[in-house]
Amino acid sequence: MSVRVVVADDQSAIRTGLAMILDSAPDIDVVGEAADGLAAVAMARRLAPDIVLMDIRMPGIDGIEATRRLVADAVCDVLVLTTFDLDDYVDSALAAGAAGFLLKSVSAPALLDAVRAVARGDGVLAPEITRRVLSRLAAPVRAAAPPPGLADLTPRERDVLTCLGRGLSNAEIAAELVITEATTKTHVSRVLTKLGLRSRVQAAIAAQEAGLTG
Questions:
Q1: Do residues 73 and 51 make contact, with C-beta atoms less than 8 angstroms apart?
Q2: Which of 2, 38, 133, 146 has its CA at 20 to 30 Å from residue 155's CA atom?
Q3: How many Cβ atoms sit within 10 Å of the Cβ of residue 164?
Q4: What is the C-alpha separation between 70 and 67, in angstroms, rounded?
């Protein structure tokens, strides 16, 4: 079954290029293209894609607000793809619930792998972004306070959260905990609900902040 994607970018040449890359993969199908945030939200609500590949700087509402609306209503996953890797953009995108953050300098194979990873329920961060996020988490000014709801997790859910904090994929978590990937996805979903989080990336950051790294 193909991964259904909507591409949202205000530059038509970039939209066309991204669509060509995605459509070149037999397991990915571009079902729509949007030129602004409002159009992206409306199109995603209408077409129910698996993923919206979202630019940040767009007219109308930007990609951050569009991401927030789509994730809040559980319409689909959002993979942010932007030219700008400013910390404010990264933090805002992740806070909005984006499942991943990539730079437009990403290679075509890496982009396809990222789309597939998000479709599997995994999170994706550009290597440049990952280093900076981890650096900020390691800074002494970051308080290691447990996230609200941590005490409500079952032992197994806490194990899953710890694995998320280590950056493991669903397949890796399943192998380490000797459970199925379907069970892993269920546990991840319950962890997000109990902690009031919108994405596994947010859960990974929460685990890191609380010192749950295994």
A1: no
A2: 133
A3: 28
A4: 5
Residue range 89-109: mean pLDDT, rounded: 90
pTM of the shown model: 0.77
Q: Which fold has domain 3-134?
A: Rossmann fold (3.40.50)
- Residue 157 pLDDT more than 90? yes
Q: Starting at the earlier edge strand, list the strands of the sheet with 77-82.
A: 28-34, 3-8, 51-54, 77-82, 100-103, 124-125
Amino acid residing at 31: V
Tally Cβ neighbours within 10 Å of residue 34. Answer: 25
As given in the structure block, the two tokens for residue 72 are 């809040």
What totals of helices (H) and strands (E) does the chain contain, helices first? Answer: 10, 6
Residue ranges of the domains in the chain? 3-134, 143-209
Residue with tokens 């991964």: 3
pLDDT tens-digit series, residues 179-194 = 999 999 999 999 999 9
143-209 CATH, one of 3.40.50.1450, 1.10.10.10, 1.20.1250.20, 1.20.1600.10 = 1.10.10.10
Average pLDDT over residues 120-127: 87
Average pLDDT of the chain is: 88
